[in-house]
Specification:
The chain is of the alpha+beta class. The chain has seven helices and four strands, in the order E-H-H-E-H-H-E-H-H-E-H. The protein has helices at 10-14, 18-27, 42-48, 58-65, 80-88, 101-105, 120-130, and strands at residues 2-8, 31-38, 70-77, 114-116. It has a four-stranded antiparallel sheet. The radius of gyration is 14 Å and the shape is globular.
Length: 139
């Protein structure tokens, strides 16, 4: 059993897609084992995306991620990391396959509705960034 961290980004919350994102995960047999809504500070967004600190889009991305409330969740299931990334689609919606969240709803490469961890290492870091053990529920 694998766990991954997903976020409905500020644009996804603004577009009323919280339920849509969760529904797609649940329809794929994945389970939500932790969930909360919060607004990231700029510093929290910087820390979360620290691996991108040298990218040209780091400042813009962290402004965007702290621009409004987000929904963060821990998603569990067999192959959860790759399943969530498949459901999300490619980073740039122009490259995202039809039927993926980003193809269906994202407006551009930055404002792309949803986040999902990209490896077991990043999932461990990202889950711990938002949740303590007692906030994650056995299912
Ligand atoms: P991912 O979210 O598909 O894993 P990453 O490469 O990890 O994509 O980038 C993290 C986030 O940074 C993306 O989801 C997107 O919001 C933003 N981003 C990635 N590449 C660009 C870019 O070229 N311009 C602007 N924003 C970008
Ligand atoms: Mg990534």
């Amino acid at each position: 059993m694998e766990r991954t961290l997903s976020i409905v980004k500020p644009d996804g919350v603004q577009k009323n897609l919280i339920g849509e994102v969760i529904r797609r995960f649940e329809n794929a047999g994945l389970r939500i084992v932790a969930l909360k809504m919060l607004r990231l500070t700029k510093d929290m967004a910087r820390g979360f995306y620290i691996v991108h600190k040298d990218k040209p889009f780091y400042d813009s991305l962290t402004d965007f991620m702290s621009s409004g409330p987000v929904v963060v969740m821990v998603v569990e299931g067999e192959g959860a990391i790759s399943k969530v990334r498949e459901i999300m689609g490619a980073t740039n919606p122009r490259n995202a396959a039809p039927g993926t969240i980003r193809h269906d709803f994202a407006s551009d490469v930055e404002h792309n509705i949803v986040h999902g961890s990209d490896s077991p290492q990043s999932a461990g870091f990202e889950i711990g960034y938002f949740f303590s053990d007692i906030e994650i529920h056995e299912r």
